[in-house]
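Notebook B, p. 112. Complex prediction, attempt 2.
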Amino acid sequence: MLDYLGFMFIFFGVMAFVVSTIGLLRMPDVYTRMHIGTKTTTIGTILVLFGASFIEPSWALKLFLLAVFILLTNPLSSSVIARATHKDGLVLDRDELKEQK
Amino acid sequence: MIFEILTLLFLIAIFMALYRLLKGPTLSDRVVAFDVMSLISVSFFVVLALYFQRAIYIDIALVLGLIGFLGTSIFGRYIEKGI
């Protein structure tokens, strides 16, 4: 019974990955691609690790360590790329604040 | 059965990210696609550990996450300041 719950969580996590890469193909801009490419992969990885700890409870400590590591480093790397892209001078595809003026 | 379906979904996700990595107009697109691919690989190694019943694959996933984070940070510094 616990195995089915774990596989359900893993399936939801992998579906989050598929949705994330569909967004990576269809979004118009670097910043929107980064937005969808980091948030959804974070939740997908956390769901996969959570489901794996349901299936094999003896691995739970290592999986928890991996989840904490992903939660710490993923926003940091997305912030690094966003800052570098902005300083490099790349503009938005469509700037709605400038259109309103 | 369930592992075949999961592997198929992982392959679809990795190939869509690979398309963005090969095609992406700017360098930042490619770095974002690389980041996504490394995180998908971390999860794929966890699923492989479940399939082969070996806990050592989790350590590989940990190291892969570390290397992916380092690569992304170094590429960010390269975009910002050059070599």
